[in-house]
Amino acid sequence: MPSKYQLFKLYQNYHKSPSKDMRCGTCRHLKTYHYHGKYYHKCKLIGESSSAATDIRLSYVCNMWNKDLKDLPIFGGSNVVKN
Ligand code: SF4
Asked: Is residue 83 part of a domain?
């Protein structure tokens, strides 16, 4: 059974970004922790834990890049990327 973190990444199409501008590293949901000399990158929408399951890569992106939580289908929004 996939975890809720895996499901978010799957449904929000988390993947390596072809763009240098539109990626987790520039997203407002990024949160970075410095712990014991290492940096750990987490996403506020995916959720945070001390597990590597919630780690994200700065060079990746998903459909929720810089969007609000209200855009998630569970809150009545659409997860379709609008151009
Ligand atoms: S919302 Fe998507 S693009 Fe933004 S930090 Fe989270 S996983 Fe990355």
From this structure: no
80 domain residue, yes or no:
no
Judged against a pLDDT cut of 70, whether residue 78 lies above it is answered with no
Provide the CATH number for the domain around residue 14.
Answer: 4.10.490
Residue nearest to atom 2 of ligand 1 (CA): 62
- Give backbone dihedrals phi and psi of 53, rounded to 5 degrees, phi first: -60, -25
User: Model pTM?
Assistant: 0.83
Mean pLDDT, range 67-73, rounded to an integer? 75
The residue to mutate among 27, 48, 66, having the most atoms of ligand 1 within 8 angstroms of its beta carbon, is: 27
Distance 46 CA to ligand 1 centre (A): 8
